[in-house]
Amino acid sequence: MNIDVEKVVRKHVREGEGFVDIEVYVKFESSETKLVVEGDDLVFYTDEPPLQGRANASLIQYLSKVLRLPPSKIDIVYGVREKLKRVRIYDVDFEQVVEKLVAVLKGGT
Questions:
Q1: Can you give the C-alpha Rg of the chain in angstroms?
Q2: Of 26, 37, 52, 83, most Cβ neighbours within 10 A?
Q3: Which of 63, 82, 65 is nearest to 74 (CA)?
Q4: What angle do helix axes 94-107 and 54-67 make, rounded to 10 degrees?
Q5: 72-103 burial by CB neighbour count: b if 16+ within 10 A, else e?
Q6: Domain ranges for the chain
Q7: What percent of the chain has pLDDT over 70?
Q8: Which CATH architecture fits 5-107?
Q9: 86, 21 in Cβ contact below 8 A?
């Protein structure tokens, strides 16, 4: 099965004025931390449990590393206590976010 990774990323990344939002599902207590495409969704696996914000912090740290941004530029603006989250990234270029996410998804990192 050939998944169009860029198409899936573009479906879940939206541009706003001064920010970019990413919709992502989070699956907790995985054996590894990674971002993948499952079906038509972006799914973030974390080895952290959904306790005391640890899974959310893991997601922010991961995106910070992938996008090469300080964690202070990344907020969870929807779904803090849900599996589906909207992550807002400030002061970034939409196309650069798409490119970096596609690269990490294709590389499997």
A1: 13
A2: 26
A3: 63
A4: 100
A5: ebbbbeebeeeeebbbbbeebeeeebbebbbe
A6: 5-107
A7: 96
A8: 2-Layer Sandwich (3.30)
A9: yes
